[in-house]
Amino acid sequence: MNANNQKQKEGAGYAALLVALCWWGLMPLYYWRLKEVSPPEMLAHRVFWSFAVLSLVIALNPALRRQMGDWRSFALALLPALLLSANWVVYILASVTGNALQASLGYFLNPLLSAALGIVFLNERLNGLKAAALALGLAGTFVQCYAHGGVPGFAVLLTVTFSLLGLARKVWPTKNAIVSTWRETVVMMPFALGYFAFLSSSHTLAFTSFGAGAAVLMMLAGPLTVVPLALYAYAMPLVSLTESAVMQYVTPTVTFILALTVFHERLTTIDLTGYGLIWCGLALATYATVRRRPLATVVPGAAQGAQAAQGAQGAQAAQGAAVSAGANAGAGQNVSFLSSHKKTPASAGVNRFWHSEGRPEPERRWEKYDA
């Protein structure tokens, strides 16, 4: 019975994760529907309504209320909030200006740049396969630059802001994805309210200019941000960490297909060559991560307990202790692109953001920075 329940929970976790990833991949459709709204105002709506929904969720959950933190927690949220704001506005611009392909490219490149940042700033080590993966990603980027007659600005900005956001999340991990995102919206709220006041004073506020239907769509920016975030937070404790890392390529893949089939963006042979090199790099990186991931880690105490156990019942108890110890040891590992590498103390607790929506990976460990 317990095994069946566990399988059902895992199945629900994978389903929730897949829904969240596809949801984020389809978000350009939403921004395209509101392309008459300026990206800064769309960002302000997203911040304001996300804050409203997240505040309601936290107010209804006493456990979340206890994790809200003090002023230091909000101060540490300042840099992630700025990076998340920049990422959101660039993503909105890419979606409404017919550059969804560049948005997809940016998030395909993200794990490769994240790996490079880990090597440079966190003293992480690089093996041969991942070095080859980075080289392929770099080659694909150069091909894309050639195809576009210059640097693909949206892709580069999305990659840089999101990778830096991931780096900040590694250095200052948080306890809960919902609470950390709420803190960041709190930090961004002065901009949102100030921009609303400016637009109202000049009578250019889109919220009151395009009718009730458009106003409702703008209000939906909050639920559209929070619901997939909640699905992601629900799913991650239930699914395999390695498989979830691989599954996160679903989001840019969905955006890529959307750009070709719905927005009818043009994909040249040179573009396809660049994407091919990047996909090969991602496949190689994924293989390296899966191959090196330990199935279980048995600590000395658990091993001694297994040797000392007598009879079938004792052996089963020792095996359970060993598996539990392995799970606890693996929980502190980084499940990002360089999951098998040595971590510095600052990056021991990982909260990696993956896609345009700033979705956080639930933390396996947190530091003193949180209340």
> What is the subunit arrangement here?
single chain
Order of helical and strand elements: HHHHHHHHHHHHHHHHH
Whole-Å distance between the termini?
39 Å
Record field, number of beta strands: 0
Proportion in helices:
over 70%
Largest sheet: none
Shape: globular
**How large a portion of the residues is in β-strands, by DSSP E?**
under 5%
Determine the mean pLDDT: 76
Q: How many domains?
A: 1
- CA radius of gyration is 22 Å
Brief sketch in words of this structure:
The chain contains 17 helices and no strands. By secondary structure, it is mainly alpha-helical.
Walk me through the structure.
The structure is a single chain. The C terminus is likely disordered. The chain has 17 helices and no strands. The two termini are 39 Å apart. By secondary structure, the chain is mainly alpha-helical. The protein has one domain.
Comma- or semicolon-separated keywords:
371 residues; disordered C terminus; 17 helices; mainly alpha
Secondary structure: elements and pairs:
Layout lengths: L1 H24 L1 H7 L5 H21 L2 H4 L5 H6 L1 H19 L3 H22 L6 H20 L5 H19 L5 H25 L9 H9 L1 H15 L5 H7 L2 H12 L7 H24 L7 H9 L2 H21 L40
Helix pairs in contact: 1-12, 1-14, 2-6, 3-6, 3-10, 3-12, 6-9, 6-10, 7-8, 7-9, 7-14, 7-15, 8-15, 16-17
